[in-house]
Amino acid sequence: MAIEIAGLADIVRIHGRRQPDVAALVHDGRITTYGELDRAASRIANALIAEGVRPQTRVAHLDKSTDRFFELLFGVAKANAVMVSVNWRLAPPEVAHIVNDAEAEILVVGEEYFPMIEKIRGELKTVRKIVAFGRHPEAESFTTWRDRQPAADPNLPTRPTDTAVQFYTSGTTGLPKGAELINRNFSSMMPLWTKEWLLGPGVPNLVCLPMFHIGGAGWGIAGLFAGATNHVVREFVPAEILATIQRERLQVMLLVPAMILFLVQAPQIRETDLSSLRLIVYGASPIPAELLKQAMKIFPCGFQQVYGLTETTGAITVLPARDHDPGDARKLLSCGYAQKGVELRIVGDDGKDLPAGRVGEIAVRSAQVMGGYWKLPEATARAVQGDWFFTGDAGYLDDKGYLYIYDRVKDMIVSGGENIYPAEVESALFGHPSVADVAVIGVPDERWGEAVKAVVVKKAGADVTPAELINWARERIAGYKLPKSVDFIDTLPRNPTGKILKRELRKAYWGERDRQVN
Predict the structure, then answer these.
(1) 384, 399 in Cβ contact below 8 A?
(2) Do residues 313 and 292 lie in contact, with contact meaning Cβ atoms separated by under 8 Å?
(3) Distance between CA atoms of 63 and 55, rounded to whole angstroms?
(4) Where is average pLDDT lowest: 214-228, 311-325, 363-377, 411-425?
(5) What DSSP state is assigned to residue 386?
(6) Cα-to-chain-centroid distance, residue 265
(7) What is the model's pLDDT at position 407?
(8) Cα separation of 166 and 396, whole Å?
């Protein structure tokens, strides 16, 4: 793709001209071509301008995934405003906090979330207009609001440093922060990554992660940047995903490890025709090696792991399909090497670079690094030091430049002075034939400060004891890393992108303590 795509708005302008009749979006039986998407974006931009929305004003979105999200996204881009998609899993006060923090002036809400907005409407300090996906007795409908405007492109000027999208970090600790992704972040990464992901004109691509997450909106943007045909699903339901793969002959998709787990365990997978698949990209959290091996046996396609963060506009490293050798268990634990244009460092507690094989904090330098955290200059200064973004993730580089993620720095367990990374213990336990899912956390221990606890979901009908699981792990990891105890649970708490909510798990063991660390 030529460099002429300099910002989000250019994506629909150029494809609307080059391939106006190619399907851009497919959702719930509705097909939107690139020409239609370009015209819809212009109408929405004109509607925003008519509402008095000025460049870099925030426009908020609250709904599950639909094709309308992308119409709104590119309309916001053509108005040089900023898209803020709010996590629909949040409680009403949390939604109000994000909308207010963003100082959003327009709020577009899905029908499912009308009751939530009614609860907090009086608390929304900056919202001047609410637009409804669906029918609402007071709010104007999205299609009416859009179609009252002309389809002429307003062609507002934009700069590479203008903010395009503001994603709020998941907020597993403290209040969520608004990461400002600028036009240059997207224009610098997409030409390289879309080729890596086998995305191209007309390629059937699955978009199944939520739009408030870089993995959902970012993956959809990548597909549209490449001119692919993007099948947007409202929610991840394994049986429906498998049916869509077969019916639409999907070729490419991005999944998180939890989704891979749910698909592998779905009974329908044995009857599903998966032959159209060319590539499954996965990331967002560590994947147990045994789960990856299971998936590689079932899905007749390449697998590619990526690592990145909201603040890096998503993927910055890649473990390509050629490195997915089931016989090379060590390399399967890697998240690959830095993409072109990305530099990595491993930094110790003293701020100095660590040699190959030593675990420290991962730091990144790239044109993909965010513009900063919205209205948080001190947090931005802590995270971005010079040209380097400090990820908060712990890992190491091997002597060939492959990155190995250990865990979030904050999730590290310190037991008896030893640093223990939960992902390593989880990977060891996951291979047990009775284990369906597992999370490892640190719990208070009078002698060691913290002790390793495994919280396990057993497979249906399985009968296994804590001692058996600990002995299984003993053959695979060092003794000091072994769980001191194992609890069983029906399901693990996860956020919408599949990440285990370890903070929720810890509550039962840390009680009212101010700090979940000893």
Answers:
(1) no
(2) no
(3) 24
(4) 411-425
(5) T
(6) 22
(7) 56
(8) 30
Task: Enter the pTM of the model.
Answer: 0.82
Q: Taking a C-beta distance cutoff of 8 angstroms, is the pair 456, 437 a contact?
A: yes
CA distance 107 to 131: 6
Closest by CA to 254, choosing from 202, 226, 218, 294, is: 218
State the Cα–Cα distance between residues 67 and 39, nearest whole angstrom: 14
Paired tokens of 61:
């979105």
How many angstroms separate the CA atoms of 518 and 510, rounded?
A: 10
CATH code of the region 280-409 = 2.30.38.10
CA-nearest of 150, 158, 225 to 186 is 225
Q: What is the DSSP string of 274-339?
A: -TT--EEEE-SS---HHHHHHHHHHS-SEEEEEEEEGGGTEEEEEE-GGG--TT-HHHHT---EEP
Contacts of 327 (CB under 8 A, 6+ apart): none
pLDDT of 517 reads 38
Which tokens sit at 197? 């992901």
Question: What's the token pair of residue 14?
Answer: 């150029």
- Give the C-alpha separation, 474 to 480, whole Å: 10
152 SS3 class: coil
Over residues 4-55, the pLDDT tens digits come to: 889 999 999 999 999 999 999 999 999 999 999 999 999 999 999 999 999 9
In what helix (H) or strand (E) does residue 83 lie, and over which residues does it extend? strand 82-85
The distance between the two most distant Cα atoms of the chain, rounded to a whole number of Å, is 71
In the chain, where are the structural domains located?
A: 8-235, 280-409, 412-510
List helix spans (H) across 83-158.
92-102, 114-120, 142-147
Rounded to an integer, what distance in angstroms lies between the CA atom of residue 147 and that of residue 377?
A: 40
Measure the CA angle with vertex 28, ends 23 and 33; round to 5°.
Answer: 15
Query: Residue 135 pLDDT > 60, yes or no?
Result: yes
Q: What are the tens digits of pLDDT across the range 202-212?
A: 999 999 999 99
Task: Report the candidate in 146, 250, 256 with the shortest Cα–Cα distance to residue 209.
Answer: 256
Hey, how many other C-beta atoms are within 10 angstroms of the C-beta on 195?
12
CATH number of 8-235: 3.40.50.12780
User: How much of the chain, in percent, has pLDDT values that exceed 70?
Assistant: 94
Which has the higher per-residue pLDDT, 499 or 101? 101
Token look-up 């045994």 returns: 290
User: 341 by DSSP, 3-state: which?
Assistant: coil
Closest CA to 210 of 309, 67, 64: 64
- Residue the block writes with tokens 């330098």: 365
Domain 412-510, classified CATH 3.40.50.150, yes or no: no
The residues, any chain, with a CB within 8 Å of residue 446's CB and separated by 6 or more, are none
- Measured over the CA atoms of residue 391, residue 395, residue 398 and residue 400, the dihedral's sign is negative
